[in-house]
Amino acid sequence: MNARTLTATLSVSGQIAPSDIAGLAAAGFRAVLCNRPDGEGADQPAFAEIEAAAEGAGLRAAYLPVVSGKVSDTDAAAFAEALDALPKPVLAYCRSGTRSATLWSLSEAARGRPVAEILAATKAAGYDMSGVARRIANRGRTPTDVADAEHQVVIVGGGAAGIAVASSLKARAPDLDIALIDPADIHYYQPGWTMVGAGIFDPATTARTMASLIPEGVRWIKAAVAAFEPEKNAVILDGCRVVKYRALVVAPGIKLDWAAIEGLPETLGRNGVTSNYRYDLAPYTWDCVQKLKAGHAVFTQPPMPIKCAGAPQKSLYLSADHWLRARRLNDIQIDFYNAGPVLFGVKEYVPALMRYVERYHAQLHFQHRLVRVDGPARRAWFVRTDAGGATETVETGFDMLHVVPPQTAPDFLRVSPLADAAGWIAVDQATLRHASLPGIYGLGDACNAPNAKTAAAARKQAPVVAHNLLKDLGLITGADALYDGYGSCPLTVERGKIVLAEFGYGGKRLPSFPSWLIDDTQPSRLAWLLKERILPPIYWKAMLRGKEWMARPQTAA
């Protein structure tokens, strides 16, 4: 008997024997719920035997038999009633535990528990509920097997990657039938938030309506995705609407897990705690920087992967540059707590960055992960990991704290059949096709290709996906398009200068300009003008419009 926890009050398992009851009682269980009909297997003890052993051990026992493969809506409702009536915690069992897990999933969906939360709990317990995902999305009820919509191409996500690939597809095949799924009303130019946090950009310039950006001829389905059914070429939306496709592009972006840091959500935007990773908080960063005359400024970076890995230190450099220009730097202590082991992952850019670290008298603390914040007390706690793997908790005070939260794939992707073991969409890193599921493609922050998660990466990925998808549909010919891992991180080391880091897979430098024009390893004023004046228009007017300036994909020989 192997009990697998679904919640604090319910575990499930395969068939138990009367001899298991004493151990269950010792483990703290107060009831057992049988979901297996008597006589299903030749070696199966009758429920009466289980019930007698349970009563002898002081446990309640209940019998709710369900035929394998035939879990009805009525069965799920009865399971919920039985679970409510039994003393907790409960062990529910059947032949393998799958029926019990299915009954719980459907009953919890009827109570309103989010789909991703149900799928995550069952997946963690070792049970795959993707076969009933549509019923879970339908609040536990059996839906009709009819698609609400069907398109040649369905794109999940209306961020930089999703809109860029929609535009690249339309540029190549204007008559292609495309739907884009995203519930958001506003689209953000997130690379601009570092500049907002330094008082350089107005926040309003980084936001536009989603409706104004979705390419003409692309249907916008304003809804959230609940689950995927790749075997049926279907996407399940919240409310159990079903959208079918011939080809699926998955680009939902990344989840910022603010709640993973104890005490952080309740103090964000107050008590000097801020982040350039949110539209509404970036102006508060600039407010904190301006108001800090003396004291302690702390900047953090979580474990990888994160979007724009250079952004945590960009906020440090621009803040310190302001304090230097305002002649306050000598009165401000700056500390950078980085969960990783190095300042930047591509070694050629580190010498220039270190010169600025020294210029701003910033102290570097590697292998320090932020775990707790007390905003009113102005205290922060980090877990430090040494070279041998041992950990200790380090506490510090602050007057200003710039936080970058841990980041994961979105919940609905993490628990889906499309994800790898870490929760990211599994793709071939060169073609960006799904690693095992035909007709599915991934790009942007949520895919598992080992590239930097930046808008610049999405700009190069979108044409690759567009080309290969159309080739697979038989609408164009030629060799596969290949992505080389390109990403760009304009490191704003001071107001007016940038180290324009451009690199691909394996940390290989991939500069776009000759060194006589922009030396990518050194701070450059021209690179600053590129970031401040040129890249925003390229984003809005080229990348999101299917104009692939300096982004045409290379093809296989």
Automatic annotation (TrEMBL):
InterPro entries: BLH_phosphatase-like, FAD/NAD-bd_sf, FAD/NAD-binding_dom, Prot-tyrosine_phosphatase-like, Rhodanese-like_dom, Sulphide_quinone_reductase. Transmembrane segments: none annotated. Keywords: FAD, Flavoprotein, Oxidoreductase, Quinone, Transit peptide. It comes from the Bacteria. The keyword Ribonucleoprotein does not apply. The keyword Oxidoreductase applies. GO terms for biological process: sulfide oxidation, using sulfide:quinone oxidoreductase. NCBIfam families: TIGR01244 family sulfur transferase (TIGR01244). This is TIGR01244 family phosphatase. It comes from Falsiroseomonas bella.
